[in-house]
Design brief:
single chain; 562 residues; alpha/beta; 12-stranded mixed sheet; 18 helices
């Protein structure tokens, strides 16, 4: 680890943006004192607008451990619309030549219309005074763009907005995505329409069309005041009605998505986890999203408002009773996902995100209301190391030791022809040998065979999407994760260049072309400019009117007085 001129530990140098002028500037990630405790800080200085500092992690030890999971596997070969603005990354998005990963998730805002007016919306939906809504043909062009990515197209499609359910043709959009080959289609929603009296039938219709997961915004499990502050409306009963309607529809696959804002709802981590546990027959995961800070904020305000993944991991440990739990960063499973694709057990994809982007773990609730880490049943570090070793063998085309017993005699028997014989059967035989070798080695890291791990063993030994779905849909496990989306204060170009979630939007400057933009670059840098150019209709939108209509809808459909 380097030491900078101030004598501070320097984790790495990167590029960021000035929060005022959005120009690309140098940034350092350093270890320093914060309120009497060590913390990882981002420091940067704009020649025109001065010095900025933000909190990246309040747990340096955890942060340092996360950094060992860097993975650069494969990037996009056929990048279209490459341009050079002269300002460098992240201003050249199109897809830019500097990107280092291929996306796992294709994300499309199917509309910027919304039936809420949330103060914290990163898309600022419904409040812009214009409508941006791609046509079905434009959506098909965007979907085809993602399908054509080489060598590895995204396997998941996420439909977002605005609020996707305000489109009457949403079922047709989902069906089109399924027909075009996306393995998993996720719907991001506030759940207003799903909570209605017609909700169960609508949920079944969406599911029959191909919807695989509902990403439901869920900021509180027992405090209506949280929703009033964050969403402008008391949505507590409405959110719970969504879960009831999913149960009536026989649907399993809801992921709760709490936006966590310090001082507003960070006290809700425990109640949300408890609610997920009590409803795990429908809910399969919780994805926490620390809020992105919008507007002009000084360094002192950032310190007060910033909620990080390190804060979240501490709180999760407290509320679940899982002491000193290490929650693995997303790229820890990069090798596993790549090995799955090589086996042809699943569509090829990698999870080579930046370690700072977020984390994921599996927690298992028991009948007594207690959470258990999956590590109770297997050695996570050992298994991750084993997967890395096997994948390294695959990339070098190394045979496992047990295969040498067969190759040697074959060479003696057939002499010079042995190479041809081995090559003819090599692919089939090699895959079989590696699979057997992997399974035999993986068994060493299992600690037991009882309880929920019975569903987990098939996923480890035969890793594919079907066994993964069965594991979570069995109702015995919960995927708990966090995605910390960036804003202009903590913007890190190294993270953006490894982003796995890419927006697809029509290029307003080149008709018929598609812009493909990493998630955080879209929301922090490009969204406003692109959407102004794409706007097909100007409208006068009063957020108070939107909120009033939402309240009327909830009172009528859910029966909750506002």
């Amino acid at each position: 680890m380097e030491v900078n001129m101030e004598g501070k530990k320097l984790y790495r140098r990167t590029k960021s943006v000035c929060p005022e002028c959005i120009k690309t500037i140098d940034a350092n990630l350093v270890l320093d004192d914060l309120d009497g405790k060590d913390a990882v800080l981002m420091r940067k200085k704009c020649a025109e607008h001065g010095f900025f500092q933000d909190i990246i992690s309040r747990n340096p030890k955890e942060y340092e451990r996360n950094q060992k999971y860097y993975h650069d596997y494969v990037t996009i070969e056929n990048k279209d619309n490459i341009k050079d603005t002269g300002e460098g990354c992240p201003h050249n998005c199109g897809m830019c030549a500097e990107h280092k990963s291929t996306p796992c998730i294709a994300l499309i805002d199917v509309t910027n219309r919304c039936n809420l007016a949330c103060p914290i919306c990163f898309a600022n939906a419904s409040a812009k005074g214009y409508i941006v809504e791609p046509t079905m043909e434009e959506l098909r062009i965007i979907l085809q763009h993602f399908c054509d990515i080489r060598p590895i197209p995204p396997v998941m499609l996420q439909l977002s907005g605005g609020e996707p359910t305000v489109r009457d043709d949403l079922v047709d959009i989902i069906r089109m995505g399924r027909e075009m080959g996306f393995a998993q289609i996720m719907l991001t929603t506030n759940g207003l329409k799903l909570a209605s009296k017609k909700g169960p039938a609508y949920i079944r219709e969406l599911h029959d069309a191909g919807m695989g997961a509902i990403y439901l915004s869920f900021d509180s499990a027992n405090d209506p005041e949280v929703y009033k502050k964050i969403r402008g409306v008391n949505l507590l009963d409405q959110k719970k009605r969504v879960i009831e309607n999913c149960r009536k529809a026989g649907y399993v696959g809801v992921t709760l998505v709490p936006t966590v804002a310090k001082g507003m709802n960070d006290h809700q981590i425990g109640p949300i986890m408890e609610y997920a546990m009590k409803n795990h027959d429908v809910i399969t995961g919780v994805v926490f999203q620390p809020v992105s800070l919008c507007g002009r904020i000084d360094n002192e305000q950032i310190r007060e408002l910033r909620y990080t993944t390190s804060d979240l991991s501490v709180e999760l440990s407290k509320v679940t009773g899982i002491k000193d739990a290490y929650i693995y960063p997303i790229p820890a499973i990069s090798s596993m996902t790549k090995l799955m694709g090589w086996y042809d057990f699943a569509p090829k994809f990698t999870m080579a995100a930046h370690p700072d982007c977020g984390f994921a773990t599996i927690m298992i609730p028991d009948s007594k209301g207690k959470w258990h880490p999956i590590e109770e049943w297997f050695d996570a570090d050992g298994l991750i190391g084993w997967v890395d070793k096997v994948l390294a063998m695959v990339e070098k085309r190394e045979w496992p030791n047990m295969a040498e017993k067969f190759i040697g005699p074959l060479a003696k028997m057939f002499g010079e022809k042995a190479g041809n014989i081995i090559n003819q059967a090599s692919d089939f035989a090699y895959r079989k040998a590696i699979k057997a070798y992997f399974i035999a080695g993986a068994m060493r890291y299992l600690k037991g065979y009882d309880g929920p791990v019975q569903e987990f063993i098939p996923m480890v030994l035969n890793p594919k999407l079907d066994t993964a779905s069965q594991f979570f849909e069995s109702g015995k496990a919960m995927l708990v994760s966090s995605m910390h989306f960036q804003d202009v204060y903590n913007f890190d170009i190294e993270r953006v260049q490894r982003c796995l979630v890419h927006y697809g939007t029509m290029d307003p400057d080149h008709p018929g072309k598609v812009l493909q933009i990493p998630f955080c670059a879209m929301n922090s840098i490009h969204r406003e400019n692109i959407e102004k150019k794409l706007a097909k209709q100007k409208v006068k939108i009063d957020p108070n009117d939107v909120i009033s209509k939402a309240k009327e809808f909830i009172e009528k459909e859910v029966g909750t007085k506002q």
